[in-house]
Amino acid sequence: MDRSTLLPMPIDIDIAHVARLARLDLPEDELDTLRSQLSAILEHAAKVQSLDTEGVEPSNHPLGFVNAFREDVVTGSLDRDEVLAMAPEARDGYFAAPPAMSQE
Amino acid sequence: MSLADLTITDAAAGLRAGSHSSVDLTEAVLERASMTEAEVHAYLTIDREAALDAARAADAELAAGEDRGMLHGIPIALKDNMCQRGVETTAASQILAGYRPPYDATVVTRLRDAGAVLIGKANLDEFAMGSSTENSAYGPSRNPWDTGRVPGGSSGGSAAAVAAGSALGALGSDTGGSIRQPGSLCGVVGMKPTYGTVSRYGLIAFASSLDQIGPITRTVDDAVAVLESISGHDPLDATSWAGDYPDLTSEIDAGVAGKRIGVVSEFAGEGYEPAVTGALSHTLDQLSDAGAEVVEVSLPTVELALSAYYLIAPAECSANLARFDGMRYGLRVDGETTEELMARTRARGFGPEVIRRILLGTYALSAGYYDAFYGQAHKARTVLRTEFAAAYEKVDVLMSPTSPTVAFPFDAKSDPLSMYLSDVCTIPSNLSGDPAISVPVGLDGRGLPIGVQVMAPAMGEPVLFGVAKTIERLAGFDARPAMVEELA
Lengths: 104, 488
Known about the structure:
By secondary structure, chain A is mainly alpha-helical.
């Protein structure tokens, strides 16, 4: 496999799209700075592509654990009022939020 | 010498000999904090009254013969990314200003059960992302050895507190070196345990497959004492190790005669200060004289570890930090819709480095780039683990500098990549999940501390501590910061 085809260089990032995915409402000038910083970091990070990983399995856990199960029994949970006391806004025992979609 | 400068081991012996009380120790540490905090800023929160209450309770229990072990009555600092019920826990971020967790992290529960006195919450780089504490939203900590320099990070407040005498020991968390590098820069011991052996429940997550809590102390014995009290299986952490745990002290006095020590040849050359490489060479000579066999070991893939780390850690952070959405806790900036509210809240609440890493991770995980970046980084991780495993067939432990440099001045690494390079020696052990420790061995020409790193295979804490204690004994490092000498 020719690894040089894995990635277009130099790395061009649609920074506004990435910021939207990450739910970050950032001003234009900050996005420009971030685009160039991220390109530099990604060009360094892209060096991992030079490694031959043909037939190598990814490690998703450093010691290779898979699943951890516990007995299916009811246990206590946090006190609702205490948890809601930390919320920016709570109403009738729920977290309160504006509508998911615009009213217009 | 002030009680604030005792090792945990000596303080614990003194408590049982009746030479001082836990209240005496706690008052000495609080007094030291009152003299050093204006300069050092190791803490974000100090809980004076609760600490003294805990100290009085410990004294009463010890007087009644209820001995909870080595940490009973000992003043300890917590990094402020560990939840302590009712005590402000911010992870040094504006987005969590004022947050008081309704529960204790498992490490906090274990410290309480061990009778430790919790002094306060130590400063860090925001969400543990950084190597200097300069990314704290509440201002940096300063290195007690030279307040014009950083204490390292991200557990810089924890390391600075132990170096300055405003705690006898501390907990830090280590995702890419965040316990060991500040330990090295502050002249104290910093240890990252095997992944999964200390519960992450209640640790505010940065990169879940890399994060590990561990001790920052003045001696290797003290690190053992703290780790003994906090490690063990926890059903509340799905990644917690459920098998057998080794006896941490089984090789503590075994010395190094007959031990095989591998020096990682990639961790030298450009960017490494001569004083740092010189201190490591001197330590290796001493170990060799003490009967160890020292050999060079090449781990070619460590050259790519930093690249893999800066894909894996941001990817995991972008997922973990999605929980800060302005809904359930912390800051909220209002918006017309939930999405607008979230996007405004997060842009206002997160600092520049956290935003950088969230965007980096979001990009690396996004459609079309996943295989080239995140997938490939995890395969590199497998290759690295295989290389480490092959090395441990031939040697008992590996060694390197902890950090390529001693403590650097503020603003010296304003370029993100140059800051990332200060973790080049420590990141591989996080990727492999193996334990590693930094031990102070000396000072450079300017009087700044230098640490060396020992790495061992997973569950290899006994040999790790045995070699580390030998290094400590041979180095005889007993220097203290000038500000501490003046106060002591």
